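Q: Start with the shorter request: fold the first protein.
A: Done. Sequence, then structure:
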Amino acid sequence: MAHQAGGQRSAPRPVPQGHDARAYLQDYATFLQAVPFPSVVMDRRWDVVLTNSAFETLFRGVGAHPTAMPGDNFLRFVLFHPDAATVLGDHESSWCLPMLAEFKAALEHSGHDHALQAIRREIGLDPLMDAAYRQGLPHWIRAVGEAAVEHDGAVRPLLHPDPRRGATECRLIVETPKALRDMGYTRLTLVPRDEGRSRTGGRRPPRRRGAHHLSVVPDPGGDGGRSVQEA
């Protein structure tokens, strides 16, 4: 579902006001660095505020992109970076569609936000992604249920660059202390599962794909709904 986005990089994130907030964020960055699993702190627009070295290691193999690097804006990375599927397994159904659903809810809540509007325009530039957003997404939510949209607790496929892990799964944990919430931030941690508990087996990483590679918005259950497929 990723494509080459033509948008602009998000505006620089404002520094939290007040000495206590800045000091807390500095100390939290030190704490985050001690977490052994990939962890990222984002604002309400998915702009990345903090990452740890495990997060950077996870995405170290992705190529350069002007607007969709994982350390800049995680939503843009998932939707628009052509290398996203080389790290995020089962990319379309396990990562793109849940994040499109979360983005849709954010847009409905904060439709005036210029950064969210810019992402919506970029989605609209790709007819396939736009069709997935407007038509495929509501059908998918009805088919899988609202619970599948929730990030916290979800188990999703992961293609880890560490060969000791390789094709595995990760548990998504959203754990945000009050001080971060008050700044408008959320922390997401991807906890790779032990090999014996992973259901993905030895699937090979997908090839890197270029623009307009959307293959399908599934028709779960064969109820007659139409799929959105690449021509």
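Q: Next, the second protein, separately.
A: Sequence, then structure:
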Amino acid sequence: MAENTIDLARRAEFRPIAAGTRIGHVHLKVSDLERSLAFYVGILGFSVTQRHGDQAAFISAGGYHHHIGLNTWESRNGDAPPPGATGLFHLAILYPSRADLAEALHRLMTAGIPLDGASDHGVSEALYLSDPDRNGVELYWDRPAEEWPRTAEGSLLMFTRRLDLHTLLKERSAA
């Protein structure tokens, strides 16, 4: 076992993390701040809440202090990590409704941003893509918990099925 690693068997000594705990924000190293702002603000629709020249910006939805931090402190003009390297797999952006996810899909299509995938997971529907620095991005909405698929014993039964994008886009026009 690696030094400073808590043995999983000892985990029982600790209480579970508080139920209200959540991921508050993600901070990304980017190679070009303006290009990243064009993607996250210009295409996805986030708002800049604070900016530090050409080195960093903080962006949010709905007036929160920041959901995403973007910085070039260690990465200006840098290369994306090569495939097979450790690091961020993707950041996930949770939309409040299916119609809002449909609007995000429309924005991506209008901007010519290709999707890497689109899945129905039973508990959620998700769009997968890459930002300009090849960071993975998941845009998704959660179905209400009472609609989540479950086994006969009541355990969660997530799956991955193809998401019908045409049907999703119809949700946008219905909203």
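Q: Describe the second briefly.
A: Residues 25-77 form a domain with the 2,3-Dihydroxybiphenyl 1,2-Dioxygenase; domain 1 fold (CATH 3.10.180.10). The mean pLDDT is 93.
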